[in-house]
TrEMBL record:
Full protein name: Integrase zinc-binding domain-containing protein
InterPro entries: Integrase_H2C2, Retrotrans_Pao
Ranges where the Integrase zinc-binding domain occurs: 387-444
Lineage of origin: Eukaryota, Metazoa, Ecdysozoa, Arthropoda, Hexapoda
Superkingdom of this protein's organism: Eukaryota
Amino acid sequence: MGDVERDARAKERTILRRDGVVARIRHIHQLATSLATNQAVRPQLAVAIQDLDALWASFEVENNDLLSILSNLNLLTEFPVGLDVEIRSYVLCGFCDASEKGYAAVAYLRVTDPSGATATYLLGAKTKLAPMKTMTIPRLELNGALLLASWLARLKRILEFQLGISDVFAWSDSSIVLSWLNIPHTSFKTFVSNRIFQIQSAVPGCCWQHVRSEDNPADCASRGLLPDELKRCKLYWRGPTFLQSPVAAWSQEIPQLQLEELPEVKPVCLLTREDPPVEWFIRFSSFHQMIRVVAQVRRFIRLCQKRKVELGFLKQSELDEAMLVIVRSAQECYLSQLVVGLRRGSPVQSKALARLCPFLDSDGIIRVGGRMQNSNWSERRKHPMLVPKESHLAVLITRHWHLYACHARPRLLIALVQQRFWVIGVRLIVHRVIRKCVLCAKMSANHPQPIMAALPGFRVREAHPFSIVGIDYAGPLQMKELSLRKARIVKVYIAVLSV
């Protein structure tokens, strides 16, 4: 009796030796691989092998998880598998999950008989340990989805010719991963983008859906179960209960997160450049020609609309309408915010424009207010049209009046322009137009002053008094005879004698 107990203790000591434990784990790993049910304990077995060096540093093994796994490994041979229905349709289903220990993928085959009864069978599970480098849970979940996608693609390629897989479904309990898969992969960083592309390329027709964590059989494989717990886990062997329901009854709700709420989004450097507004009359160089062209175009439009139009010379009313069209276009181009604010009745934000008391007339033109409403002036003079200084129209108006007034100087030119238009910053526009006028530049040019000739010798040489006398004349000059208001004005000539 003592020999039997001694042999038993010796056998236990042999098992707990380093070489014995490694050999036992390798044997069980091969056995479980053949059963395709070792996926739930493989992470713990692999971790146990990695930790053997640290465990045997004190020549003792105190890993209770390892002892529990070894004592229950004989239960691996008692798990039931097999098909027991007459099959008519096949659906490939997969689940993935991840934890800090690793990530896993579980695949099932959903079969339906002619009567409509369904059954699910476990095809197997795959697990991988989490990398030694710390990785976020969403990245681990994405790795689990990639593991599932590649495995489903392989299973479909193998079983499609024999069974004819009709559909492929995949589930994940990660809202972030499902949101990643519904957004173009180019929006994310390299790590996430590459794996999303691989998942979409592996199973292009796969339908990804959301599953609760308590209904996810891959959770058992990712976190790990002992063999006795794995035997009693129906969720792992048969899958969640909703697989027994018709496909149309499966939940299609996928929690969709916005792009700005997702991690791993690729930063985008965006440079916005606002092009300056371009006026359609920018090519005109003459104000008078521009008005006439617009008036002719408006007359042509009326003719195309088969409206009554008087042909012949353009009337003043047509020219005025063309002017309103041009001014309205310039205001909408450069004063669009002011136009919108006046239409809404909002106060003017700009202090410089608020001093002008702008308002919209019946034609939609911004005009300048003021205190001249009760004067006898015409309406267009009391309330001139507002023209922005950036507009090409301001230059054409100033140039037109500059030529019309025979190259008037700044003060007169400003007075002429303001009879009908109120150009913002009109002084700058006026000086710019005059400075660019070729004729004004020629007329205001400084004439060269000729060098005077040398004085004659008798004017600069020494001589006796009155021997040489010089006479200089000046005139005519105007002079009053008396200091009275109506005194007679006479001409005066001057003779200057120099001795």
